[in-house]
Amino acid sequence: MSYDLSQLGWDETFASAYRPFDRTDAVPGRVLRADRGISTVLTADGVTRASLGGCVLIDAARDPAGLPCAGDWVVLRRWPDRRTTCEMVLPRRTVLIRRTADKDASGQVLAANMDTVAVVEPIHPEPDEARIERLLALAFESGAEPVLVLTKSDTSRDPDAVARQLAGIAPGVPVLPVSVQRGIGVDQLRRYVAPGRTCALLGRSGAGKSTLANALAGATVMPVQAIRDVDGKGRHTTAYRNLVMLPGGGAVLDTPGIRGVGLLDTGSGLERAFADLTELAARCRFDDCGHEAEPGCAVQAALADGTLTPRRLASWRKLRREIEVESGRRSERLAKARRGR
């Protein structure tokens, strides 16, 4: 059985990056899943499993983030003894990466080459605004288009009102109330996984990511586990990153349920997630305004007239401090590496 890779996003940009490695024993493919050095890869000829080799091993020794991940386009080499190795990860167009708990880690890649990142948050028992803001910052930082998906909308009397409320903390981001049980909002989400496009699902365990993947695929492609009615929390059903091909083209990247997300030391994603605060800060009288009691502070003025809530300001400050700390750690890591060399 042959596959049209263009239905999964293979285009001239990736083809151009692949050409220097094109040879009779090499083929391009997209990683469906990566497990402990073994990648499950879809090529034009079908699905195959490949071990690590070539430049991948060299790059991974310098930075583990260079290891193949679900969504990556890679160069495979087929050997005379019927082995298949993953020789190269082609440059990523977008990448969803979080900081790990290890202070010395540069980050953990959750997904690659997605066009959209769907931040999945359940309406029941109550959406966590701080978590949404953090995940949106991560989604913006990836380079993909974010969308906020509110699952279990059938548990709310007025899901549209909840969506309008949350739109205030997601400037410029589409907010979609979705109920798989009632088939509400699924068709709206489908446009983000049209042929050639990939949508990554990002959210906590029990948010409904696997249920969404199954609904979009029209079949059970990911395991689903019931959640507790009391607090709406569930166990981790997806323990790995998995690319699911959809009938007619397009793909969904289901990521593991995450309890916490650390941001890396770049703030562009944070600026876009908090576009309202970024705009306010730019209107302050002083460039180095601390937004406390300085005269001409636009942030404090917005607090006073109610257009900015204390909770959102506190969330912005917390994430900014986190990024500043990580920036310091990164500088220390680089200095240590230079001393070592």
TrEMBL record:
Cofactor needs: Zn(2+)
GO terms for MF: GTP binding; GTPase activity; metal ion binding; rRNA binding
Binding site for Zn(2+): 284, 289, 291, 297
GO biological process: ribosomal small subunit biogenesis
Domain EngC GTPase: 112-259
Record's cofactor remark: Binds 1 zinc ion per subunit.
Binding of GTP, residues: 151-154, 203-211
Short name of one Pfam family: RsgA_GTPase
InterPro entries the UniProt entry points to: P-loop_NTPase (IPR027417), Ribosome_biogen_GTPase_RsgA (IPR004881), RsgA_GTPase_dom (IPR010914)
Chief place of localization: cytoplasm
First-tier enzyme category under EC: hydrolase
SUPFAM superfamilies: P-loop containing nucleoside triphosphate hydrolases
Subcellular location: Cytoplasm
Listed GO CC annotations: cytoplasm
Keywords: Cytoplasm, GTP-binding, Hydrolase, Metal-binding, Nucleotide-binding, Ribosome biogenesis, RNA-binding, rRNA-binding, Zinc
The EC number(s) this enzyme carries: 3.6.1.-
Similarity annotation: Belongs to the TRAFAC class YlqF/YawG GTPase family. RsgA subfamily.
Protein role: One of several proteins that assist in the late maturation steps of the functional core of the 30S ribosomal subunit. Helps release RbfA from mature subunits. May play a role in the assembly of ribosomal proteins into the subunit. Circularly permuted GTPase that catalyzes slow GTP hydrolysis, GTPase activity is stimulated by the 30S ribosomal subunit.
Subunit and partners: Monomer. Associates with 30S ribosomal subunit, binds 16S rRNA.
Name of this chain's protein: Small ribosomal subunit biogenesis GTPase RsgA
Organism: Actinoplanes aureus
